[in-house]
Amino acid sequence: MSERPDRIPEWCRGEEWCSVTATASLLGRKWKPVIVDRLLKNGACGFSELEGLINGISGKALSNNLKELEEDEIVNRSVISERPYRVEYALTDRGRDLEPLIVAMREWGSAHFGPDSKKDNP
Amino acid sequence: MSERPDRIPEWCRGEEWCSVTATASLLGRKWKPVIVDRLLKNGACGFSELEGLINGISGKALSNNLKELEEDEIVNRSVISERPYRVEYALTDRGRDLEPLIVAMREWGSAHFGPDSKKDNP
DNA sequence: CGGTATCCGGCAGGATACTG
DNA sequence: CAGTATCCTGCCGGATACCG
């Protein structure tokens, strides 16, 4: 498949300052980072399993986002068994490389809005 | 202002697995991480200056995103001078705390789509 | 179980023109 | 310079119903 997913803008080529734009183009949606987070923590998941792990997501949104993540080679989908029908979504290498990014999101989020976030002057 | 911006969903409260959702709610848009990236690299900027640093953004999008980032206490806006009219956007402490996250985005982006990204087997 | 089809609303964001 | 106003588009995503 393509080295450069269509989701990354055409004008965004190589320049160092473009890398954030490129990343934001692939992950900058409501659910994508959360999906990657759950796959990092739980390993490969089935569809409904993933749905259960993500509070508030609708089946359609999950389906669409998984499809795009697959196109962008962040997630890999494989059929595990035919009867009963079982599918598994797992991170690719590229997807696993997102771990530091997701960890940074977790930390920033819980530092500022989490259970033990310190107010202005603790 | 509010500890928990409205943009973070109501059901997202404290639980550790919510921190990614919370962060995605605040930054998970097309331009926000890019804006933070530019402010990190260039320091405080005026409006047009920032517009020039961000390839492809429209004035309206920049205006809207800055307003939201300000509401979420990630960016601070201050009027520098009245004649000529000058404004400056700078990161708050909370905004500066995003640096590791933005750095992770830069690194993932340039590793996978950047000028010197290695193909599958270098 | 693992989705797709359809309908539908909202909002993000582009273009352009205009203001103080 | 630093925006706002308006118009208009497309996509995102929720709800629901249905399929193999």
Question: Could you characterize what this model shows?
Answer:
The structure is a homodimer of 122-residue chains. With 122 residues, chain A is mostly helical. Helices cover 48% and strands 11% of the residues of chain A. Chain A has helices spanning 19-27, 32-42, 47-53, 59-71, 93-96, 99-113, and strands spanning 75-81, 86-91. Chain A has a two-stranded antiparallel ribbon. In chain A, a hairpin with a 4-residue loop joins strand 1 and strand 2 (86-91). The longest helix of chain A is centred in the last third of the chain and has 15 residues, at 99-113. Chain A is globular, with a radius of gyration of 16 Å. The N and C termini of chain A lie far apart (50 Å). Chain B binds a DNA duplex (20 and 20 nucleotides) through helix 4. Chains A, B: This is Transcriptional regulator. Chains A, B: One of its GO terms (molecular function) is DNA binding. Chains A, B: Keywords: DNA-binding, Plasmid, Transcription, Transcription regulation.
Q: Given the helix and strand composition of chain A, which structural class is it?
A: mainly alpha
Termini distance of chain A?
50 Å
CATH architecture of the domain at 29-111 in chain A: Orthogonal Bundle
Beta-strand residue fraction of chain A: 5-15%
The major beta sheet of chain A can be summarized as: 2 strands, antiparallel
Shape of chain A: globular
Biggest interface between chains: A-B, 52 and 53 residues
Helix segment tally of chain A: 6
CATH topology of the domain at 29-111 in chain A: Arc Repressor Mutant, subunit A
Order of helices and strands of chain A: HHHHEEHH
Looking at CATH, the homologous superfamily of the domain at 29-111 in chain A is: Winged helix-like DNA-binding domain superfamily/Winged helix DNA-binding domain
Q: Work out the helicity level of chain A.
A: 40-55%
For the largest sheet of chain A, list the strands in their spatial order. 1-2
**Total number of strands of chain A:** 2
CATH level-1 class of the domain at 29-111 in chain A: Mainly Alpha
